[in-house]
Amino acid sequence: MITCYLRYIVDPYQLPAFEAYGKLWIRLVEKFGGKHHGYFMPSEGVSNVALAMFSFPSLAAYEDYRKRSFDDPECQAAFAMNEKDRFILSYERSFFRPVFEDDQGVRRAP
Question: How many CB atoms lie under 10 A from the CB of residue 78?
Fold first, then answer.
C-alpha cells in the first residue's frame, strides 16, 4: 500500500471553494480504486495550509489513477474549478508506506 500526502498552500480567503473542491476529490479518488482519508482544513495556527491523504494498493495503481483522471470528465471539471478560481497557490506531494499494529512483522519492500 502507498499513501499520498498532499500539502496545499491555499488562499485563506477562498477556503469554502477549496473545501468544495476537496469534497469532490474524495469521491473521485475512490471511484478509481483509492481510499481517501480526508482533507484537513486550517483551524488553529496557520490559515493557508491544508492537507489531504489517500491510499492506493500500489504506486502502479496510483499512477493508473493519475493517468485515467486526466481523461475523466468529472476530474476535468474538478481541475477546472481551481483553474477558474485559483484557490490553490501551490502544493507538494509525497508518498509514504503506512505501518499498522496488525502487520505481524511482515516487511514490505521499500
Answer: 20
The pTM assigned to this predicted structure is 0.83
| Cβ-contact 91, 74 below 8 angstroms | no
102 located within any domain: no
Domain-located, residue 27? yes
The mean pLDDT value for 70-79 works out to 95
> By three-state DSSP, how is residue 94 classified?
strand
**pLDDT tens-digit profile of 32-53?**
999 999 999 999 989 999 999 9
For residue 35, give its domain range. Answer: 2-91
Three-class DSSP category at 17: helix
Q: Which three cell numbers stand for residue 51?
A: 492537507
Amino acid at position 44, single letter: E
Kindly tell me if the per-residue pLDDT of 104 is higher than 60: no
For 31-42, the DSSP string reads HTT-EEEEEE--
With the C-alpha atoms ordered 28, 30, 34, 36, is the resulting torsion angle positive or negative? Answer: positive
